[in-house]
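Hi support team,

I'm opening this ticket because the web form for multi-chain structure prediction keeps timing out on my end. I have pasted the exact lines I submitted so you can reproduce it. The total is 227 residues across two entries, so I didn't expect it to be a heavy job. Is there a limit I'm missing, or should I split the entries? Thanks in advance, R.K.
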Amino acid sequence: GAGVSQSPSNKVTEKGKDVELRCDPISGHTALYWYRQSLGQGLEFLIYFQGNSAPDKSGLPSDRFSAERTGGSVSTLTIQRTQQEDSAVYLCASSLDREVIDGYTFGSGTRLTVV
Amino acid sequence: KNQVEQSPQSLIILEGKNCTLQCNYTVSPFSNLRWYKQDTGRGPVSLTIMTFSENTKSNGRYTATLDADTKQSSLHITASQLSDSASYICVVRKAAGNKLTFGGGTRVLVKP
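Hello R.K., no limit was hit. The queue was backed up. Here is the completed structure from your submission:
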């Protein structure tokens, strides 16, 4: 597509439920990133994919968080047994992942509210 | 301590005035530095990107500077407009690997 697409744009869930967030990157972009932005806070790195593999998962805050990417394209971020502190905007970005300068394009995010 | 520090945290300016945002980083080795603008409820949008050898880069009323020796960058907004109200985020890419480090952002509010 023309940009990075994320769905849903908004999600309200009850504490303890599982949620799945989806990211559809720009076609041909091999690198995909997930970030989290809590209210009034900066962007927090969660995980980085190169193709279908995740060489850097260092930002995942707990084992309740997992992500996968299939076909080198769509990625899903899953949060199990959601907690109120998981409430945040989850942003996805993709890039061509060249050493030379290239753009990281962000989606508009999924606003997750855990009640 | 964050490897990318931005200041001030927030800023209020009058429409038509200029302002300068600061970004200091310790990320090493350095590959490039980007300034992003993030409107409320939207994803960040890239304003400028600078490599080690670049000192100044402009994008309309936005001018970024980089001093790779002191590891400092600034973003200057000229003749601010109401639409400049947003968060401005400094992002540094490490040369080894593909890791990005984000600053905490500066929230700018332009008042009429």
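A quick check on our side: The mean pLDDT of chain A is 89. Let us know if the file doesn't open in your viewer.
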